């Protein structure tokens, strides 16, 4: 078989840039803050953790009224398969919230950030969901938690998170008998940034460009065992998966994945070597108020280890996992279809 028979060409964004930046003018941000003010007054009693769909509709209406150029920009970026999107300049709450060391987001303390998240998600045509084994809320605190010492998870801190996509053990598009699909995208609101620990990512098209056609062919075989994320406790089984899909998407987790054949194990070793090249990495110097969207199947990301100060100002993002269709998952309770198995 010739090598060209192995090749796949991943969809590449219309722009050569790894990151699509959208900047919100100050006047537009002030307008959005005014339009979204009624939502802030009810976020404690009728917050998105109870039902995200009304919040998507209300936040999108506010954005379309106050930020029409941003909603168009996000729609175009999504249609162009842009792997990483950063929105800068949206309004923020007067005082930053304390880092959520308990592992749960305080909606009242982060009301504007939560509204911003929903506005961006709705403009992208995506819906937030939560996995029952990970969190009881669609709002997930990405920050150090003392009980997560030594854990390679979004609550860990002393152990680096290697390059990964989230939920790499899950099916991509369609639920299996006992497992809902992986999130299609991740969206983060930056509450506390650490300049020394930027967000780091690599787009899939850049990674595949560093591989040979034969390596890509091996990655498309179901020869990789994936353990569930460390934050999921008990009852989770190892799954056998493919790394690369024929349509140019992927799943990868260098911390939770092993090769079940010799060639698959070699490929993972090769990937570790390639991804150790600093020139491959795109760094996002985020700051408070930024919204970052990562396509969970067209980009991989990581986090370095760090030492928390435990003073309320440590690195803290609010994350939502997003899907194009909430009906594709397995709801654990029909009254809350956004909470998936």
> Any idea how many domains?
1
Strand content: 15-25%
The H-and-E topology, N to C, reads as EHHHEHEEEEEHHEEEHEEEEE
* Total number of beta strands: 15
The N- to C-terminal Cα distance equals 41 Å
Question: Keywords, please?
Answer:
20% strand; 341 residues; disordered N terminus; single chain
Describe it.
It is a single chain. The chain has 341 residues and is of the alpha+beta class. It has helices at 26-42, 52-66, 68-79, 111-123, 204-209, 213-219, 262-275; strands at 19-23, 84-88, 127-131, 140-142, 161-164, 185-192, 199-203, 224-226, 239-241, 257-259, 282-284, 291-295, 299-303, 316-323, 339-340. Strands 1, 2, 3, 4, 6, 12, 14 and 15 form an eight-stranded mixed β-sheet that branches. It has a four-stranded antiparallel β-sheet with strand order 5-13-7-11. Helix 1 (26-42) packs antiparallel against helix 2 (52-66), helix 2 packs across helix 3 (68-79) and helix 2 crosses helix 4 (111-123).
SSE order and pairing:
Blueprint: E1 19-23, H1 26-42, H2 52-66, H3 68-79, E2 84-88, H4 111-123, E3 127-131, E4 140-142, E5 161-164, E6 185-192, E7 199-203, H5 204-209, H6 213-219, E8 224-226, E9 239-241, E10 257-259, H7 262-275, E11 282-284, E12 291-295, E13 299-303, E14 316-323, E15 339-340
Parallel strand pairs: 1-2, 3-15
Antiparallel strand pairs: 2-12, 3-14, 4-14, 5-13, 6-12, 6-14, 7-11, 7-13, 8-9, 8-10
């Amino acid at each position: 078989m010739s090598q060209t028979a192995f090749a796949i060409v991943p969809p590449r964004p219309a722009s050569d840039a790894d990151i699509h930046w959208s900047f919100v003018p100050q006047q537009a941000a002030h307008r959005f803050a005014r339009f979204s003010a009624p939502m802030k007054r009810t976020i404690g009693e009728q917050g998105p953790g109870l039902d995200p769909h009304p919040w998507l509709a209300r936040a999108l209406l506010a954005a379309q009224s106050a930020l029409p150029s941003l909603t168009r920009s996000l729609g175009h970026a999504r249609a162009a398969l842009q792997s990483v999107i950063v929105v800068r300049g949206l309004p923020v709450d007067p005082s930053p919230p304390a880092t959520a060391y308990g592992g749960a987001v305080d909606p009242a303390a982060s009301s504007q950030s939560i509204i911003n998240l929903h506005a961006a998600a709705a403009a992208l045509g995506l819906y937030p969901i939560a996995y029952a084994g990970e969190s009881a809320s669609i709002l997930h605190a990405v920050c150090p938690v003392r009980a997560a010492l030594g854990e390679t998870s979004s609550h860990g801190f002393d152990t680096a998170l290697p390059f990964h996509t989230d939920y790499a053990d899950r099916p991509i598009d369609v639920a299996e008998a006992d497992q809902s699909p992986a999130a299609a995208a991740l969206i983060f609101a930056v509450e506390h940034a650490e300049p020394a620990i930027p967000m780091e990512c690599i787009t899939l098209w850049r990674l595949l460009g560093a591989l040979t056609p034969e390596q890509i062919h091996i990655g498309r075989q179901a020869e990789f065992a994936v353990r569930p994320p460390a934050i999921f406790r008990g009852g989770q089984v190892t799954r056998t998966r493919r790394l690369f899909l024929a349509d140019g998407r992927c799943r990868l987790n260098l911390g939770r994945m092993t090769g079940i054949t010799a060639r698959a194990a070699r490929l993972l070793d090769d990937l570790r070597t390639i991804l150790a090249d600093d020139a491959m990495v795109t760094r996002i110097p985020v700051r408070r108020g930024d919204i970052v969207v990562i396509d969970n199947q067209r980009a991989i990301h990581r986090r370095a280890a760090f030492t928390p100060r435990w003073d309320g100002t440590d690195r803290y993002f609010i994350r939502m996992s997003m899907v194009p269709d909430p009906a594709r998952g397995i709801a654990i309770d029909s009254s809350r279809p956004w909470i998936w198995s």
